[in-house]
């Protein structure tokens, strides 16, 4: 990893990540490893209470570290059928804003 990749994230954002509670950091790490996930799947993967996950997602959204994917734009292909159907609009997926997080800086 080059130095330009390591310092891609602004310093103020690195400090904001370090100030987050452990639950929010863990969700960031999980989203980095697994990719886009909805709230229910995050709860299943982390075994954290619903309120804790909700609070962590709220903090991460406020800090602009993650974003909500628009469910109306994502299409799912059904198995064995050629028809396409829209994904449920009530389910919101969360994804990282930046692909690189300070967790990679420890490896450098």
Helix content: 40-55%
Series of H and E elements: HHHEHHEEEE
Overall average pLDDT: 76
Q: First CA to last CA: what distance?
A: 6 Å
Q: Give me the count of strands.
A: 5
Strand content: 5-15%
What class would the helix/strand composition place it in?
Answer: alpha+beta
Q: Strands across the major sheet, in which order?
A: 1-5-2
Summarize this entry quickly.
The protein has 108 residues and is an alpha+beta fold.
Secondary structure layout:
Elements lengths: L2 H4 L4 H9 L2 H13 L2 E2 H8 L3 H13 L3 E4 L5 E3 L6 E3 L6 E4 L12
Antiparallel strand pairs: 1-5, 2-5, 3-4
Description:
The protein is an alpha+beta fold. It has a single domain (3-104), classed as Arc Repressor Mutant, subunit A. The chain has helices spanning 3-6, 11-19, 22-34, 39-46, 50-62; strands spanning 37-38, 66-69, 75-77, 84-86, 93-96. A hairpin with a 6-residue loop joins strand 3 and strand 4 (84-86). The chain is globular and about 40 Å long. The protein starts with a helix and ends in a 12-residue tail after the last strand.
């Amino acid at each position: 990893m080059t130095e330009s990749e390591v310092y891609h994230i602004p310093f103020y954002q690195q400090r904001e990540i370090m100030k987050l509670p452990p639950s929010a950091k863990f969700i960031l790490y999980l989203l980095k490893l697994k990719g886009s996930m909805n709230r229910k799947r995050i709860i299943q993967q982390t075994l954290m209470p619903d309120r804790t996950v909700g609070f962590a997602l709220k903090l991460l959204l406020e800090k602009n570290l993650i974003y909500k994917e628009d469910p109306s734009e994502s299409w799912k292909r059904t198995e064995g059928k050629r028809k396409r159907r829209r994904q449920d609009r009530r389910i919101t997926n969360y994804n990282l804003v930046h692909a690189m997080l300070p967790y990679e800086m420890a490896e450098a």
